[in-house]
Amino acid sequence: MDVNAAVAAVAAIAGVLTGVIAMLAFRWSEREQNRPTRSSLHTDAVLPPGVDTVLSVLRSSAVVLDEADAVVKASSAAYALGLVRGGKLAVEPMLQMARDTRRDGEIRQVELDLPRRGTGRGEALAVSARVAPLGSRLVLLLVEDLTEARRIEAVRRDFVANVSHELKTPVGALSLLSEAVMDASDDPEAVERFAGRMQIEATRLTSLVQELIDLSRVQNDDPLEDAEPVRVDELVAEAIDRCRHQAGAKQITMAAGGAADLRVWGNRGQLAAALGNLVENAVNYSPARTRVGIAARSVNAPGGDHIEIAVTDQGIGISDKDKERIFERFYRVDPARSRATGGTGLGLAIVKHVAASHGGEVTVWSAEGQGSTFTLRLPEAGAARDRAHQQPARETRAGGAGLDEEAGRSTPHSPESNAYETLPAPEVLP
User: Fold this and answer.
1) Membrane-spanning residues where (predicted)?
2) CATH number of the domain residue 65 falls in
């Protein structure tokens, strides 16, 4: 009996202990479940109310750091720029700014050039970083990408400098020539000679101003707002008529050929100006008693049929290094020859922007001493009109910002494919 009683007492004590241990374990588990996690401390519990929503709508890249320099909150743009890696701010100058602001509470701002992620060319990413305290424990970092703005500003400065230089040349020449006319007032032959030079410079100045206006218009206007079907043969005839006098003076034969009854969809005035510039360049850069050909054809393409208008000359040709830059504003292959022909260096830039804004492109094949072929490729009228009706509100214009300086691409033509080789009997100028 004594043994049985002892066993029962031990069993009772063990049961009580087990119950106590189980209850303690339950209470501990419940307390752990209710304790805030580290992630919730870094978002909901730490960020002031409404800050998360505000940061999500900011255009700038946003990073919130705690007192231990850990990232509490970061926008997707911050990760895309490479500012945050492994939960830490990866840019040391910005991290030091955050520490200084946390220490004294002052707002700081700095512009930095950061290496661009994913490129091995050492390109810099220009950013503006602003650091401010956020409450008593946090620091807010806002980063604005200035790369595109810097590029556009550089292009604008170059454009203004080039325009100033180009305008100064004929204006200065007119001033000097006018003084010469005054000094030679009693010499009729000298006055006539200087007056002739003044007319040449005035014409050059007028052409430059007009092409600047044309370039500004094609960059800022949407040509498809007033688009219509335009007959290619009418554009070709207008371009030939525009250059008839210059070609006749050099005894250059102009010939038109290719497929008939082709139409493109676009702004007639801009298309005529673009093709006219190509033909005018071909005439100006061709030797005397040669031939310039203009041919058009229809080309099947996956996105819809296109019309190709090729302008071919037998001129001096273009070197490979120059082909990469000929579509830049004010760039001239031969500056001395451009001065002699009155070229402004804007004609091909206008052609490039007109082609891009119409959903097409302009390409060039050339070899030194063998001539050049410029090909204007535009959507055929029917396909382009259908796409325009499907997308009446065009959100962005093709061709980029009006200050884009990309060089034109060349296409692998051969001399045998020059347009004038397949043309019918040419129209010989009187």
Assistant:
1) 6-26
2) 3.30.450.20
Give pLDDT, residue 422: 38
Q: Are 259 and 407 part of one and the same domain?
A: yes
> Mapped to the 3 state alphabet, what secondary structure does 10-30 carry?
HHHHHHHHHHHHHHHHHHHHH
Confidence class of residue 294 from pLDDT cuts 50, 70 and 90? very high
pTM of the model: 0.52
Pick the more confident residue, 400 or 71.
71
Residues 409, 274 share a domain:
yes
Range of the domain at 281: 222-422
Q: Tell me the per-residue pLDDT of 40-59, one tens digit each, with 9 for 90 and over.
A: 334 444 677 777 777 777 77
Q: Are 133 and 279 in the same domain?
A: no
Higher pLDDT: 19 or 375? It is: 375
